[in-house]
Amino acid sequence: MSLESIYYISQTSAVILLLVSVVFVGLQIRDNTRATRAASTYDVTKTWALHHREMAFHPSSASLASRALTPTSEISEFSDDEQAQLTSIVRSVMQMFYAQFLLYKEGSLPREYWELNGLYAANLLQLPTIKAIMEQEESVGHLTKDFTDELSRLGGLHRVDPSAFSMSHKPG
Questions:
Q1: How far is CA 109 from CA 5, 7, 44, 55, 105, in A?
Q2: Residue 156 included in any domain
Q3: Nearest-angstrom CA–CA distance, 145 and 140
Q4: Per the structure, how many domains does the chain have?
Q5: Of these four, 14, 42, 66, 172, which has the most CB atoms within 10 Å of its CB?
Q6: CB-based burial, 69-96: b 16+ in 10 Å, e otherwise
Q7: Among 20-24, 64-68, 148-152, 158-162, where is mean pLDDT lowest?
Q8: pTM value?
C-alpha cells in the first residue's frame, strides 16, 4: 500500500468520523431541546399550581378574585383596598402569562401550551374589572408591546364565554 493510499484512507476516515460526530451533536441538541421544553412546561404548570394553592390558603383573596372574574363586575364596585389587592393579583397573573410568552418566544415552551394559556389571558382581559386594572397597568409599562399584540391576536381567534372565568361557575 502506497503512502498516497494511506493518505486517502485517513482522509476518508476523518470525514466519516466528522459526520458521525456532527450527527451525535445534532442528536444531543435535539434531546437537550426536548428536555428544556419539558422542564419549561413543568415549571409553568407548577407556577400555576402554586398560584391556585395560594388562593386556596387565602379565602379572602379567592373570594375577591371570584368577584373580579364575574362578567358583570366593575372596578368601581371594589373598595380602594380591594382594588389595590386586585391590582397585585392581576399583575402577578399577567406576569406569569408574560413569562410563558417569553419562554414560548425563545422556543422553550411548546406553541400549543402557550396558545392555550395566551388565549386564556386574552379572554381574561375582556372582563370589565380585569380590563380596567390592565388599562392602568399599561400606563406603567409592565408589559411589552409584542406581548399585548400577541394577546390581541389570540383573543381575535376565539372568544370564551366570560362566565367560564367565574370561580363559582358550574359547568352545565
A1: 51, 48, 9, 25, 8
A2: yes
A3: 13
A4: 1
A5: 66
A6: bbeebebeebeeeebebbbebbbebbeb
A7: 158-162
A8: 0.71
